[in-house]
Design goal:
154 residues, four-stranded antiparallel sheet, 4 strands, disordered N terminus
Length: 154
């Protein structure tokens, strides 16, 4: 996902999250993130954790074993599919894409647009990148496409 960012095209990421206990729903959130050159990546923004990416790459049996043995502080979460919540995030992502093609929103765009449905609030969130980040930092070579020459032997 993150390695496909290049200097020519932006990346629009969206996600939804439902926070619940056994008794009640605590939160219904949707998020749209605009990632592009010169903007912070999803890791620097705190949307993606490297530990979570590692865990999601494991097979189900190994994932449950790692969690059960206490090798990670992450927890096993069921991922329900909720169409109306997902459609809210999809709608905001299309607005961001449309704005990139023909500006009509406030500029510059926030790094993330987050909506919390339990209290009907929406806000823009601005994040700063980390200059030392391997993905979006100043010296990063990841996702630069053909804008940086490959290091090869002559």
């Amino acid at each position: 996902m993150i390695s496909h960012i290049n200097t020519r095209y932006p990346y629009i990421d969206l996600g939804t999250e439902i926070g619940a206990t056994d008794e009640e729903i605590q939160s219904l959130d949707s998020r749209v993130s605009y990632v592009a050159p010169g903007r912070p990546c999803l890791i620097c923004s705190g949307v993606v954790s490297l530990e979570r990416v590692r865990l999601e790459g494991l097979e189900d049996k190994e994932y449950k074993r790692v969690i059960a043995m206490g090798y990670s502080q992450d927890i096993f979460l069921a991922a329900p599919s909720v169409m109306d919540l997902n459609m809210r995030a999809a709608s905001y992502s299309v607005l961001v894409l449309r704005h990139l093609l023909q500006s009509f929103l406030d500029s510059p765009l926030p790094t993330h647009i987050k909506e919390t449905l339990t209290n009907f609030s929406m806000r823009g969130i601005r994040s700063n990148g980390n200059a030392d980040c391997a993905i979006c930092g100043v010296n990063s070579r990841v996702g630069r496409g053909d804008s940086i020459r490959l290091t090869t032997r002559s």
